[in-house]
Amino acid sequence: EPYNSEAWNLMAETYVALEMYPEALEAADYSLAINPLDSNAILMKANAYMRDEQMTPAIQHYTQYLEKQPDDLSVQLSLAVCYNSTERFEEALAVLSKAEQYARKMPDRQADLSQIFLMRAYALSRQKKFREALKAMARARELSNGQQSWQYDIAEGEIYLQNGQTKQAEGYFAEALSASHEQGETLFNIALAYSNAGYYDCAIDLLGDVWTLYGAQEGKFVVPYLADCYLNKNDMENFLLHLQLAPSCNLEATQHLF
Predict the structure, then answer these.
(1) In the chain, how long is the greatest CA-to-CA distance?
(2) Pairwise CA distance, residues 3 & 34, whole Å
(3) Is 29 exposed, middle or buried (0-12, 13-18, 19+ CB in 10 A)?
(4) pTM over 0.70
(5) Mean pLDDT, consecutive 10-residue segments, the chain of 258 residues?
């Protein structure tokens, strides 16, 4: 039905789920051509952009959607993720404060409070507000009821890395590896924590371990992240070597390099 905006929205949502982001954007644009005020089409575009790691247009569309649907908690959280990803931490914290207010009023969304405090801890740590970050982290753990404890261990370890306290960070990372049944995923996230904090040699070593653990072919998804580490180290020889391999290993992560 070419003039049915709901059908185009459903198609856009399906394309996002299938990771076919250009097609999702096109379908949402068709919906907006039929109904320029269609907030669902705006949301589908925002989701497609975020999943494709195009955070600036994602922020634009999430903000536009929230102007019409200000109490949508899930979208508030998505917008906060985008702000944290683009290092717009003050804006992330402002959105998270609003999200917390909404979550506390909604009995069926209490579980989101843990994620809100976790994202708050990340933003505060990147602002070098160490004590406030640890306080938010403790609240996130308390609200999590012990679920996925290894993810919280990694997040808390990263806070200590951001503050230069590597020994404390290593303790939390060891706990994460002990608690997790997904050793490859856990090692990968620890590597990202080291990279985020500027410990590129540690990140490179761990990414190499991840590659070995997953195998020569399946583990190649780490190549763009290795390239990023070498770029930050100003090791252009290894950066260019990995950059040549990167698109065939992980296109989205390679695009994120630029």
Answers:
(1) 61
(2) 6
(3) middle
(4) yes
(5) 77 92 93 91 95 94 95 95 95 96 86 94 95 96 86 95 96 95 94 96 97 90 92 93 71 50
